[in-house]
Amino acid sequence: MTAVPAAPLPGEWPAPADAPPLLAVESVDVVLGRGSRATKVLSGVDLRIWPREIVGLVGETGSGKTTLARTVVGLVDPRQGRIVFDGRPISTLRRGARRAERRRGHVQLVFQDPIRSLDPDLTVAEIVGEGLKIRGEGDSGEIRQRVLDALEKVGLDATVLARTPGQISGGQRQRVSIARSLAVEPRLLICDEPVSALDASSRNYVLRLLDELRTSLGLPIVIISHDLSSLAGIADRVVVLYRGRIVEDGPVGQVFAAPRHPYTALLMASAPSVRHDRPLSLYQLRRGDADPVPPDGPDACVFAPRCPSATRVCAAQPALKTVGDRWSVACHRHEEWEALARDYGQQRAMPGRPADPARGRNP
Amino acid sequence: MTGRRPGARGSGARPRPGRSRSVWGLPSVRIALVILAAIAILTAFGSALAPQNPLTINANALFQGPSMHHLLGTDYLGRDVLSRLMAGTRLSVLTALEAVGIGLALGAVPGVATVFLGRWFDFTANRVADALMTLPYVFFAVAVTAALGNDLGHAMMAVGILLAPLFFRVTRAATLEHARSQYVEAAELLGASKVHVIRVHVLRKVLPNIAVTTASMTAAALLAVSFLTFLSIGVQPPAPTWGGMLSSDLDYLSLAPWAPFIPGAFIAITVGALNALADAFRDRSSAGALVLVDPVTQRVLRTDPRNLEPVDGDRQSQSVA
Amino acid sequence: MVIDNRNPLPDITDSGAGADVRPGPAPAEGEVLSIDDLHVSVHDGAAMAVRGISLSVRAGEIVGLVGESGSGKTLTCRAALGVLPRGCAVAQGTVSFAGQDVTALSRRDWERVHGNHMGAVFQDPASYLTPTITVGHQLAEVLRVKLGLPRRAAHQRAIELFQAVGLRQPELVFDQIPAELSGGMLQRVMIAIAISCDPQLLVADEPTTALDVTIQAEVIELLLQLREQRGLAVLFVSHDLAVITELCDRIVVFYAGEVVESGSAAEIIERPRHPYTQALLRVASVGDFRRRELEVIAGQPPHVGADIVGCRFAERCPIAISACRADSIQPVPVSHQHHVRCVRARDADNVGELVAR
Lengths: 363, 321, 357
Known about the structure:
The structure holds 3 protein chains of 3 kinds. In chain A, 30% of the residues lie in helices and 19% in strands. Chain A is of the alpha/beta class. Chain A folds into 2 domains: 23-241, Rossmann fold (3-Layer(aba) Sandwich); 258-357, no CATH class. The longest helix of chain A is centred in the middle third of the chain and has 18 residues, at 200-217. In chain C, helix 3 packs across helix 4 and helix 4 (151-164) crosses helix 6 (183-195). The chains are: A alpha/beta, B mainly alpha, C alpha/beta. Chains in contact: A-B, A-C, B-C.
């Protein structure tokens, strides 16, 4: 097979360093649940999004990525910190003002599961046009035209207008969900796991679609996923979330070439691929049972219990540190862990276990 | 729950293409509708359709069995039973409907609203409903008629007030279920007001529940009417009522043992028809809540009978906890 | 158990164009599962969803079935396990397990096979476990019922099995109910239950599809480990070719109810011969996250059971010719144990033309 060709960046990215961000998440803490069930789901999250960029927000289940999306759009209120859009704080708005802000449609969220987020009793036309109807702009003819425009942007035509969500395919439902958000002309789009339930071809189709939307509308898009493959090919930037904290945030090409956080490397090594050229194997990126016990406790680095390179210094939660152009990482040992991982891998091989299970297939 | 991404449940066979699953096609529903249509006609025109005058006393024809002249025989005053039944339908049914109407208005409307009006309103409404549900309706009806006058309308108003908490509970539960769904969240994100959410998303999903409850409550109200008139509460003799007829028949049981079965059967058949209708509605409305995956083609299906076509689905859809 | 797939078989020479080299009904030595010319009808015989599938799994081998939804891979799996859904039936062909024909086995006989010889794991583990009983007890119950172990021994064995599938602190896990465990842990519990009676074959239908990527990698590793330690053969079904590649020795590619290509994983990835396989490779994840061109496969697969003359992929195929639509296409060998259902499989320019795209 030929090597994978790299496509050029869309030219407008990255935005100049001093340009103001469109969205700023400032030191946000989020606690969910009450009383004894209260859990801190996000801690000190700092994130900026600029126009025209596609940012992949990656984290496992429980990392807080969906909560972060819901906090940005105001379905959840932060306990600390705030959300600022275009220079205006939106997380502190009261009910009426919040509704007015939402009607402007600046920030839109495409929910993860179109089966649950599309009203099964409404037609596609009613669903996609709902935002416009709520705004009360235009008569039914104008609304219908704008609905058709939005559907066209996602590759659907008038034939689906009269259908209900149950009568169209999964990929089409996903696109209707996107069209609903596009109809109100957002300035920022957040997609929660847009392609996780799709096969490879449909996934690529939707990702290409998002890329075209970014280019044609200048629309920044945040793609939330548990897996890097769900944003591979179109993301400019990757933000890695682990148990409520950002551990790495940088340009995707550079992070891919040399991840600075061991968790990022673990995510990359875990991603299935038809080509097996992994710089580091899973084996080298995980703690073995024989490794020394890592520091634990509320102040320690969140990743320490899972980290193969955790030492005493990791008893204090590391702050996000800049390590390159628009690239930051939260790790005390971000300069040494990779070399150590290579060595550890060899030392840790146990009898009865293949040294590199990723290559454990029989010929 | 952490670390888990539950998937949509899979299983369940697909209804065969072409077979209708509409509730109106069921034989039990059709029979029920015929019965209820007959009752409705009697309610509207009962007195006019009766073969004889229900009030005419005939001392020479007491407790006669069924004959050409009196299809269901005569009662203890020689009056035609069939005519009395037909004439009595109007009063019984209208007052039962009055009770249901009051219950619906006082119960279903707050039931939907309470989900959107905040915690304090919900708390208060629930406590009021709890209190009302502790009252036994017979005593409450007696108390109301004692205060307002011995009129069946007053008695059934009391019954209606006591039906309200049942309507409240059912509509509240149904509304809660839909108010927390993601499509409502999506509408909120578009800036929808609560009224919009109720009107566009919630109402049509809650109406089936309301319909079921109304049918069951009408059956309950009819039984209540029958019982109250049986106890002579709200009854102005000689106006015929089903319960009243039952009561007087029981007084003369030794002379005419067959007699009570006639009004009894009337009541039972009507109540049975209403319950069958309620059951059919309930089965239909609960089916729409599930999402099933066809195990053959892995296509996602809705079990909502309104949307039976198989869709060209991708894989099962997943959702993050 | 002896893993005996290390003896290379002699190369099959080209026995002429269109030669039918499907394996005959008699199983080769060491085969745990052999499916021959399987046809499965669905919707009470209204449509034929699986047409003429033949494949085999040898002891200790991991075979991957890959294809889109509705391609027949799940139905084939279920036919092999004897658990076809209502309305579906084997219309033709045989399924043999360790040399014995199990196609028309009675329910009681299947109960003897399930667990002791064949284990299964499916996509959503929580729906296969009782929510109110601890997972340890559910596993112990299987051991008591199937192996007749006394209570204490079953308890002990259950903890050992939890350890074997990589669950840390198995004694604590024993006392958890399913709601208290993560998806990855539940899937490990399912695997523990599936292998508890030492089956020769594990059938896994999309077991990792609903799991996070890191957990998926661990489960794949676990399956490889189980093969090493117990000689467990695995039939693994997935729509994701990348996952299949990570795990499987041999790959069987399904399309619209047929096998369109089968062979060793290395062969299929390096030298795919069927245009559909090539398309799958073009869209599969390559583990490179930089910006690049993303490919799609145009068109839709035919409806389940559609009656098509000739190649079922012809409508979407970039290199289809008239011969493709003329008559039913038989699988052709292109090298050692590599079969392709395509009239252009051996065209010298076929391979080059498609890979260069």
